[in-house]
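---------- Forwarded message ----------

FYI, see the VWA domain-containing protein record below. Original note from H. follows.
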Amino acid sequence: MSSVADTGISVAVDQNEYLAEGARTVDAIVTVEITEALTVAVPQQERVEILIIDCSGSMGSGDKFAGARRATLAALDVLPDGTRFAIVEGTDKAKVVFPENGATVAADARSRAAARRTLDTLHPHGGTAIGTWLGLSRKIAEQYPNAMVHAILLTDGRNEHEKPERLAREIRSSEGVFTCDCRGVGGAGNDWEAEDLRSIASALHGTADLVRTPDLLADDFAAMMKVSMSKAIPELTMRVWTPQSDRVAFVKQVAPTIEDLTGRRTEVSAQVGEYPLGSWGAEDRDYHVQIQVQPAPAGSEKLAARISVVAGTELIGQGLVKAVWTTDTDKSAQISRRVAHYTGQAELAQAVQEGLAARKQGDNATATAKLQRALQLANESGNQATAKLLGAVVEVDARTGTVRLRASIDLDDERALDLRSGTTARVRKGEATARVRKEEGA
């Protein structure tokens, strides 16, 4: 464990460093914690907020468009004066509707009142092309290269007015340029795809969720804006060094949500890779790092990885992952409880998503098996939030314990389960000393 409390960051490594002879795999949970001491010390950066509102024709049903207006104003109400913002109208095109010059404007009483008047003139029309919304937002962000730029994207419809390749391309182009939280409006007739929102939020270090009814949008937008304002550090990077003979198998964020960072590696040298961690406030996150090492004789010890946390070019925290080979099976047969727990949480998320995908394809047998496994993992790990969401999609026979798909599944329940399946139950650092046998928890 490495702790630099006086600088406001700690990097803690939890692992069982003992390996059996011939073993190659080293697992560790790395907890990065940022305290207010660091966020307060960081110089304030210019901030830009982009509110992307679906104005397609389908938003005209019910109270959706009025709810979107209220939500936009609620977000602006919690925006500190001086923060620059823009409102983007999203249809099968994208247009900055406020301010009129297409750039951004500083938040104050006058600009908020003007934004309200502009919102009152908008009306639902046209189609949905989310990639164009991201593209325009990126152009806005690129005007402020030294600013922290965050977007909120709201939609109610399927991305049907552009090819999937266009959306994928715009997501890739926007990585590292701005962050984005995504929301889909719930209710009948709203046919947005959870996978689209998850893909955007994952790549752009944001969140994706369902808001069941339009009257809940205002509180949700205000909450997202407050979280955005709490981020003081624009970007942290995890730098992983391994010996020449070893390699990184994967790096995954495992709490508070699961995000696979392996494919986002940037090669610094043959032995060093960097993984983007996004913007930070005062918070802590857990990462599962797995290293494949060259086996060594019993009694050998080596440094398997050096985990560094970097802000810009400055090293601000570091932790070490070790490997010790032994013939003592009591030592090598143990696994850190936190490694075991988060391995199960990753399996849980995968089982949920594969089960829902199978159901969508009409493969109910596979869907049932996957979701049954997911329910088992959720209950075993204490992830009651996911277990409750699963309860809306599957039912358990009280007599036999058999799990089966519900005959009727509400689309919003399915979407909520899909989008929240990657939210994990935490195992805190204080619980790390508990151990379970590898064959039981690995």
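H. also flagged this: The chain has three domains: 2-42+233-328, 47-230, 340-420.
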